[in-house]
Amino acid sequence: MTPLDQHHHNDVRGLRWISDFGWLRTAELSALMFTGMHAHKQAERLVRSWRRRGLVLERKLPERAGRALMLAARGVQLLAEAGFATRSGKDIGETINGTWRPPLTWMHDLLAAQVLVELRKRGFGILPEAVLRRSAGALTKMPDGLAIKGAQVIWLEVESARKTGPAMRQMAEALSAVAAGKAEAVCGHRPTHAMVAYLAQARDERGHALSHRSRVMHAVAASTHSDMPLTFACCTRQGAVGVGRIEFTEETVIADRTNAILRRLDAAGWYVDDETQVNAAHYGGYTAYVWQDSDAPGTWSYHAENASWSAPAGYAGSIEEAKQHAASLISMRILGV
User: Fold this and answer.
1) What is the pLDDT of residues 31-70, one digit of tens each?
2) 235 & 315 share domain
3) pTM value?
4) Which of 70, 179, 269, 313 makes an SS bond possible with 57, Cβ 3.0 to 4.6 Å?
């Protein structure tokens, strides 16, 4: 590839990324396009070239967050000539008395972009929300992005504000549907994993500490029919609005219905069979069983059944976890899940 061809390739590739996200900063663009210690300088040179040629619009973000890059009409034309249809970013945000103001969602959008960029570094293909909105048609709930690696399709939600009422319930229901394998396909990809990204040490509008993680877990527990896995992306702030580190952790959200059944099992009382050393308790016509695996110390098994149904046995790391899983089996059977 000649230097001229490489330059054109970088133009198309970089402008497409801006189109896909709607707007980007140089920091995220550099991570998407280049590797190594000079990635940021390479991106800065590219952006200066775009600015000289009028391919991008540049707008100053609040809170010393840097500058947002959006497609100018000439950038749209360059992509059209390369076979990619898109539109200008001139209508992103608004200009009042000569001063540009970003969309109200700009911090949310920036956090989503930073998490998606990190997932791409980890080998995922990514589809930002702007792409999904242009291509997915009418959906009840749109994710803040998709990340795809093989058969794994992550539905990303960003919790950057204190969602309440319908907004929180809608998000919880969407995450529950993904975990249950019942989410609608988005742009041909059916989500298989649910992820929530949030800022550590966040504060609400009153300046009080805000635990996005616990609020989301409570909302999902109330929404889900069965215990479900949920991945959290805890983002540690760096500077004004940057993200210095993202820690991914897996949680199991225990459904409120499971906890209600477990409380009833505990209230009824667990008894131990002297011969088998199996712990059992009753809920209506159901019986839950938990026992320690003699061949694997520290491993507990669980099982549930009634007169016409018997669940496959499973394994847990503690007696408390085994009891929760047994309660979950009964909950799912009652709900027909």
Assistant:
1) 999 998 999 999 999 999 999 999 999 999 998 889 999 9
2) no
3) 0.83
4) 70
